Each structure stands twice: as structure tokens, then as C-alpha cells.
């Protein structure tokens, strides 16, 4: 969700060449960039010959900045359309705009560098700012959640979305310190509760910030719904490429591709194999791709990135639609 080659944009798209390879862009293709961010994938798609790109982002600041991040000629030529909307709504938006099935879709899951690097957005503890963390800049802020939720609910969020082993102790410390209003304040509370010592390899505040952000923005639900929306939006032979940044996201994508390609858990004499009567909607599921050492040296934030991709079959999309 970050960008290279944009006007004065310091953000670097992760696995960009691998994503473009997975999308197999042909001249004149219609593509969706479900997570526009700073326009990195969009620009690579256009440079590869895409005839049209529809870029989605729920962050109004990303949409507002889009015209200065991408060369104006793409807008004038009608090759780029930006939409302020969640990518889980792509099939509805495409239909409303009279756009049929598309040739390829890219999704880059999680928070963007543009959001992380702005302390006033409250996504990171690297710079002190208000506890916000809202991607769409609407709804409950992180401060409002932490200052109103009970200890058990905060602990559940830290455990489920941050895989935090000391979730209960951290939640107890947060409740005791309320009101909590600033990112630096929350990070200090977490470190004390987790027994953090300077020089340790990982900062426990990272897991807490991740968990709260995922919860506030319903990111895992959005990912599941977005994968289903992509399935409905792709033509037969269309390509879907998804970049994730932590294990919770990657498990969802891996499971989706396994189930949609006809894979089911192996059976045993104690538990018969599950049978899915639906036709596979995806094929040619690629093995996960990780950044090269060269990319990691240039962009350390890419270290946990994983790319998974597959090709749409001509089978009807699954009927269920998650809301």
C-alpha cells in the first residue's frame, strides 16, 4: 500500500515486481488495486500496460493525495479512477459504474507507510500522537475503545488479534491507567506490564498496537469479505494477488485459496475427509513468495510480507456474501 516513483513519495511498494508478475498484466487489461495507499501498485500496473485501473481506499487522505502521487496523464486519459470505499465493496461499486468482470485484482493488507509515518493518525508509537488508528477516519478511536471497554474485552482483542501471551496483564494495566490518550503513553504502559527491558529484540507494544488497529478497523472481516468480493469480480482466467504482513492475515488467504481451489483437510479413519460439492473457483494457486534479501535491505518493513496468488476458474462464485 506504499508507493515508489510517485512525486516526492518516499514509500516503497512491497514485492511490486512479484505482484505484477502474478497479475500477468496484458495491454488494455482492466485491473483493481483494492488498497491504493500511495499508488505504488497502481503505477506499476499502468506502466505494465493496464488499460484501466480502479483504485480503492477507505482512507480519505489516500484518495485526496492520489492525484499528486500519480502522474496526471493517467486521470486525463481515463485510465485511473479512485474510489473512497472499502475493497470488500468492489463488486458493488464496479457494477454501479457499469464495469464488468475485471482481469486482475491486487490487495495489500494492513496499514500503509503513509499512515504509520504520521503521528497524528495514531497508528505507531515511533512518534507520539493521539490514539486514533482509524483507517477511514470515522467511528470509534483507539482512545475511546481503551477508555470504555472492560478488561476482559481488551484482553480478548490483544489475545485474538495480537497473539499477545500477556494479554490479561496488559489489559489490567491499561484499565488501571485510564484515561489513556496518547500513543507514547500506551506503549509505556504495555512495556511495563510485559516486563520489557531496553535492548530486547522485539517491543511488546507492537503486538498491542496491531491488535487494537485490527479490531477498530475490522481488518480480518474486511479481508474475508474482500476475498469473496474479488472472486465475484474476476473474469474466468482473472488473477488475484494478495500481500499480507502477519500470520493472522496469511492464514485467512491461505485457507481461502485452499478451499476455493477444491482443497480440503485430509481425512482419517476417525474423521472422514470433508467434501465440498461446489466447483473450484480458483486454480493454479502459487506458493507463498517472500521478499528477497535485496528488497529487505532496501525496505526493512517488508520483512514479514507474503504474497499468495491464484487464477479464477469459470465456475460460478460462491453464493454466500458476508456482511
Using brief descriptors, characterize the structure shown:
323 residues, alpha/beta, Rossmann fold, DNA polymerase, domain 1, 2 domains, 14 helices, 7 strands, 13% strand, disordered N terminus
How much helicity do the residues have? 40-55%
Strands, count: 7
Rg, please?
20 Å
Structural shape:
globular
First-last Cα distance: 24 Å
Return the CATH topology of the largest domain: Rossmann fold
Gist?
The protein is of the alpha/beta class. It has helices at 16-23, 40-47, 60-69, 72-76, 90-96, 113-116, 142-148, 151-162, 167-177, 183-194, 205-216, 219-233, 247-260, 293-298, and strands spanning 30-33, 52-57, 80-84, 102-108, 234-244, 282-283, 306-312.
Task: Compile the SSE list and pairings.
Elements lengths: L15 H8 L6 E4 L6 H8 L4 E6 L2 H10 L2 H5 L3 E5 L5 H7 L5 E7 L4 H4 L25 H7 L2 H12 L4 H11 L5 H12 L10 H12 L2 H15 E11 L2 H14 L21 E2 L9 H6 L7 E7 L11
Parallel strand pairs: 1-2, 1-4, 2-3, 4-5
Antiparallel strand pairs: 5-7, 6-7
How would you explain this protein's 3D organization?
- It is a single chain.
- The protein is an alpha/beta fold and 323 residues long.
- It has two domains: 16-114 and 219-312, Vaccinia Virus protein VP39 (Rossmann fold, 3-Layer(aba) Sandwich), CATH 3.40.50; 137-216, Putative methyltransferase TM0872, insert domain (DNA polymerase, domain 1, Orthogonal Bundle), CATH 1.10.150.
- Helices cover 41% and strands 13% of the residues.
- The protein has 14 helices and seven strands.
- α10 (183-194) crosses α11.
Amino acid at each position: 500500500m506504499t508507493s515508489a516513483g510517485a512525486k516526492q513519495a518516499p514509500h516503497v511498494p512491497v514485492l511490486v515486481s512479484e505482484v505484477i508478475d502474478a497479475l500477468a498484466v496484458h495491454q488494455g487489461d482492466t485491473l483493481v488495486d483494492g488498497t491504493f495507499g500511495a499508488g505504488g501498485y497502481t503505477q506499476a500496473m499502468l506502466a505494465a500496460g493496464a488499460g484501466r485501473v480502479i483504485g480503492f481506499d477507505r482512507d480519505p487522505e489516500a484518495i485526496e493525495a492520489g492525484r499528486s502521487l500519480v502522474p496526471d496523464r493517467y486521470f486525463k486519459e481515463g485510465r485511473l479512477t479512485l474510489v473512497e470505499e472499502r475493497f470488500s465493496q468492489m463488486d458493488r461499486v464496479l457494477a454501479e459504474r457499469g464495469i464488468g468482470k475485471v482481469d486482475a485484482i491486487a490487495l495489500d493488507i494492513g496499514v500503509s507507510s503513509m499512515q504509520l509515518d504520521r503521528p497524528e493518525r495514531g497508528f505507531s508509537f515511533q512518534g507520539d500522537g493521539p490514539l486514533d488508528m482509524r483507517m477511514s477516519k470515522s467511528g470509534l478511536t483507539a482512545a475511546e475503545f481503551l477508555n470504555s471497554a472492560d478488561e476482559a474485552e481488551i484482553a480478548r482483542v490483544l489475545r485474538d488479534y495480537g497473539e499477545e501471551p500477556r494479554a490479561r496483564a496488559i489489559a489490567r494495566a491499561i484499565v488501571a491507567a485510564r484515561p489513556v490518550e496518547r500513543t507514547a503513553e500506551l506503549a509505556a504502559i504495555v512495556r511495563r506490564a510485559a516486563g520489557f527491558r531496553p535492548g530486547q529484540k522485539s517491543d511488546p507494544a507492537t503486538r498491542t498496537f496491531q491488535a487494537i488497529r485490527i479490531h477498530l478497523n475490522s481488518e480480518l472481516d474486511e479481508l474475508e469479505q474482500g476475498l469473496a468480493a474479488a472472486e465475484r469480480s474476476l473474469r474466468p482466467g482473472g488473477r488475484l494477488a494478495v500481500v499480507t504482513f502477519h500470520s493472522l492475515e496469511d492464514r485467512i488467504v491461505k485457507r481461502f485459496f485452499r478451499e476455493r481451489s477444491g482443497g480440503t483437510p485430509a481425512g482419517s479413519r476417525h474423521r472422514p475427509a470433508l467434501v465440498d460439492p461446489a466447483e473450484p473457483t480458483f486454480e493454479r494457486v502459487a506458493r507463498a513468495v517472500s521478499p528477497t534479501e535485496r528488497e529487505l535491505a532496501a525496505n526493512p518493513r517488508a520483512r514479514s510480507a507474503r504474497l499468495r496468488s491464484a487464477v479464477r476458474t469459470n465456475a460460478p462464485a460462491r453464493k454466500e456474501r458476508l456482511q
